[in-house]
Specification:
By secondary structure, this protein is mainly beta. The protein has one domain: Neuraminidase (6 Propeller). The chain has one helix and 28 strands. The model is unreliable at about 1-55 (pLDDT under 50).
Length: about 350
């Protein structure tokens, strides 16, 4: 039976009402979802405002570069700066003979300086009052207790009073008008008593024994303290010990991340820098520059890994000249520098 007009209108009305109901329900649900999302966004924003995310900053690494090479390959020599010039003295030559060579760099080129009175390897070098001092070291005849001084821009070495204890592979550091000879070895015996040299009286004075006597340690000045990093006994050490010249006391500081001996060390831009060296038993190189900033150690790859370099601060940078590019003996003439 055909539907009446009235029936069709009723059914159509019910259909429209159903569609409107679904639409309203969907709008309500969507609105609720948007409201919930907005609340989450607001909460997140509020949380970000009250508790900002911490940014992690990484301290900049030091720049490393190649510098003019030494006239000859040299290993286990020493270096210092006097009269605005860099002096590299003594060490092994390519045939592993001890030398009395002195090389002087004026900022542009190297030249030969006045040779030392005796041939040495593993001496200590430092400067005071425009004078170059070379102390201790090993000779073909044994360990040396002798010391020599050269006034910058002159050609004659003079001998100073001998050390109380012969020692080679020592750290020689200058501070406040005195030299400090620290650590080292005499034959197979570690030398644990440091000595201080007064050039006015030409005398050496014994100081309190250091903590953990060792040789092949890297010496540097940290404000009013004389510090030594690494070394071997023969076990390679990660120790950093500092001597306060005002109080006469030793203190141990934050140890190196990697133990090393025969490294270079200094203070650059307020940071302690210890570069290169080698491991115990001379089996591998330490191929990093270890830097202590704000109480935290960081490592960066070394431009040219070496041990047994002659090192000194020159032109505001840590210069490393000569040394060996493999464990044991492998002398080179290369110079590099590290700076901000």
């Amino acid at each position: 039976m055909p539907r009446t007009r009235s029936g069709r209108t009723t059914n159509d009305a019910l259909l429209v009402v159903g569609v409107l109901t679904l639409a309203l329900s969907s709008c309500s649900s969507s609105g609720s979802h948007r409201s919930s999302k907005a609340q989450k966004t607001t909460a997140s924003s509020s949380s970000s405002t009250t508790a900002p995310r911490r940014r992690t900053t990484v301290a900049p690494q030091f720049e490393q570069r190649y510098e003019p090479s030494l006239p000859d390959a040299l290993q286990e020599g020493a270096a210092t700066v006097a009269g605005g010039q860099l002096y590299v003295v003594a060490g092994y030559d390519t045939a592993r003979n001890s030398t009395n060579d002195v090389f002087v760099f004026d900022g542009k080129q190297w030249r030969s300086g006045p040779p030392l009175p005796i041939a040495l390897n593993h001496p200590g070098a430092a400067s005071l009052g425009g004078r170059v001092y070379v102390v201790g070291g090993f000779t073909p005849n044994g360990t040396s207790d002798r010391g020599f001084v050269l006034k910058a821009h002159t050609s004659t070495w003079s001998e100073i009073a001998p050390l109380h204890r012969a020692r080679g592979a020592l750290a020689l550091v200058a501070l406040r008008g005195h030299l400090y000879a620290i650590g080292g070895r005499d034959g197979s015996t570690e030398v644990g008593v440091p000595e201080s040299y007064d050039p006015r009286s030409n005398t050496w004075t014994d100081l309190p024994a250091m903590n953990g006597a060792r040789d092949h340690l890297a010496g540097y000045v940290d404000h009013g303290a004389i510090c030594v990093a690494g070394g071997r006994t023969p076990v390679t050490s990660a120790r950093v010990d500092c001597f306060d010249t005002a109080t006469g006391k030793w203190t141990e500081r934050s140890p190196l991340p990697t133990a090393t001996s025969g490294a270079a060390a200094t203070l650059l831009a307020g940071a302690t820098v210890v570069a290169g060296g080698e491991s115990a038993q001379e089996t591998s190189l330490v191929k990093s520059v270890q830097t202590l900033r704000a109480g935290q150690w960081q490592n960066q790859p070394m431009l040219l890994a070496r041990h047994g370099t002659a090192f000194a601060r020159f032109g505001g940078r840590l210069w490393l000249c000569g040394g060996a590019t493999s464990p044991g003996y492998a002398a080179v003439a290369t110079c590099t520098s590290i700076g901000a």
